[in-house]
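WARN  no MSA supplied for this record, continuing single-sequence
INFO  ligand: cobalamin
INFO  echoing inputs
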Amino acid sequence: MTRRVLLILPALQQSCDRVFRLIKYSRFPPLSLLTLAGLTPRDGWEVIVRDEHIESSEVSGPFDLVGIQTYVSSAHRAYALAALWRGRGAKVVLGGIHPTTLPEEAAAHADAICLGPAEAVWPAILRDVEAGCLRRVYRGPCVGSAGLVPLPRRDLMNPRGYLIRHTMVTSRGCPHACDFCYKSSFWGRDYHEARPLAALERELAEVDDGLVFFLDDNLLADRAHARRLFAVLRGSGILWQAAGSLDVTRTPGYLDEAYAAGCRSLFVGFESLSPETMRLQNKPVNAATDYADACRRFHDAGIMINGSFVFGFDGDGQDVFERTVEFTERNHILTATFHILTPFPGTATFTQLEADGRLLHRDWSRYDTDHAVFRPRRMTPEQLEAGHQEAYRQFLSYRSILTRNRGLPAPLKRIAYNVAWSKVDPLWVPIVRSGMMPFAKRIFRRVLAMDTRPGPAWQQEERAVDSAAGAAGSVL
Ligand code: B12
Ligand code: SF4
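INFO  complex generated
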C-alpha cells in the first residue's frame, strides 16, 4: 500500500507588498522540504511538495501525513494549514525553527512536532505513521546531523518557479554566537559542523545550470572546509554566492581563492556601523574589523558585496538610516538588505527585551524584520519603521545605484545586476507565470559571469581616495 505525504512551505502572511516578496521567494526552492523528501523511502511513499510563495498548497485526495515548515513569520499560516489538514483527517507534523524555539505553542496546533534538524528522526516519523503510533515530540540531534543530509529531491520542485534551483548547505551552524541571531536558538551556541566532502561532490555533480547559492550560515568560517570545497568547485564552471562574516577578509589570499573557485557575491552581515554596538551584541568579529578596508578587500578580489544592516539597536538614533545608506554609497556596496532588529524567540535578544518589558506584542507575522515589534531606546517604533523604509527608498534610487557603482571596474555589469536586483520586482510575477524563468536565469548567469576583478590601476586609485577620506575621519 502506498502512503501519501504532503510537504508545505507556508506563505509569509503579510498584507504588505506580496509582489515585492515574490522575487525574494522565487530565488530559492524550499530546500528543507526537498531534504525531507530525500529522506523519504521511494518505496511505499508518494511525496508532494508545495511552496505557497509560488503556487497553491491545495492538493486533492487524502494524505496520511502533512509536514509543514514553520518560520516565525509564517507561524500563523502554518497553524491555519495544520487545522485545515487535521480537519481532513491527515496527521500533521510541524518542524523547523519556530517549533524548535517555541515547542509548546507549536504542539498545540499539530499531532506531532519535530525539534531541530530532521535527518535522524524523519524516517522514524514515517514508520510511526505507518504503524499508527505517532509520538507528540521528535527531537533530532544536531551533532552528527550534517553527515546524514541526503540528496534533496529536486525533481519534486516546481520547475518554472525558481531563479536558483540548486541551493545547498555544506556546513551547519557557525563558530560565532551573536545575540540577535537564530543560530544559538536552533543549533546551540557551540555547534558548527561540515558535511562530508563525498556527499558535497555528489550533490554538486547534479548542478546542470552552472549556478549555486550556498545557504550555510557562514560558509567561509572554517577555512579548511572551504578550501576543500574550493578544490571541488574550481574548474567546474559553477558560479556561486554564499554568506560569510567579515573576518574572512583578514586571511591573505582567501578571497582570491574563493573567486577562483567561482564565488561572485557574498552576503555579509555588517549589522551596525558602531563597534560598540557590535561588542554589546556579542559580535566581536565586526567590532574588530575596519569596514571600509574589508569592502576594499572584497572588491579587490572581484567579489560583489550583498550587505546586511540592522536598525534599532540601543545605540541607534534617528541619524542611523542616513549614515548607513551613505556608508553603502561610499564603499560601493552593490546590493543590501536593511532589517529592523527583530527579537526571534529563543535568542538572547528576545530574552533581554522580554525581561525589560520592551516587547510590543507576540504577533509573529510581524516578526519579519520589516516591523518594529519592540520599543527602541532612542526613537519610537513608528520612527524606526519610517526610517527603515526611507533607507530602502534612498538605497534603491537610481541616484544611489549610480553613486555606488561610480568608479568601479565593470560598471555595466554591476549596474545591470543592481538594476535587476532592485527594479524588476513588478516583472517577476509575469516571469514566473509565463514560464520565462529559464530565460531570466540565462541572463542572470551571464551577468554574474562578467569579470569584476579590478586592474592594479583601480586598486591604487581606490587606496589614494580612501587614505584621503581616512584623513578626513571615518564612519567607524
Ligand atoms: C533561504 C532562506 C530564506 C529564503 C527561503 C526560501 C525557501 N523557499 O525556503 C527566503 C529568502 C525567501 C527567506 C525569507 C525569509 N527569511 Co529566511 N532564511 C533562509 C536561510 C538562509 C536558509 C534556510 C534553509 O533553507 N536552510 C536549509 C534547510 C535544509 O534547513 P532548515 O530550513 O533549517 O530545515 C531543517 C530543519 O529546520 C528541519 N525542518 C524544517 N522544516 C521542517 C518541516 C518538517 C515537517 C520537519 C519534520 C522538519 C523540518 O529539517 C530540515 C532538515 O534538517 C535561513 C538561515 C539558515 N541558515 O537556516 C534564513 C532564516 C530561516 N530566515 C529568516 C527570516 C527572518 C526570514 C524572513 C522573515 C526575512 C525577511 N525579512 O524577508 C523571510 C520570511 C520567510 C517566510 N516565509 O516566513 C530567519 C528565521 C528566524 C526564525 N526564527 O524563524 C533565518 C533563520 C535567518 C536569520 N538568521 O535570522 N529566507
Ligand atoms: S556570525 Fe552570522 S551566522 Fe554566525 S552567529 Fe553571528 S549573525 Fe549568526
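The first strand starts at residue 3 and ends at 9.
INFO  checksum written, moving to next record
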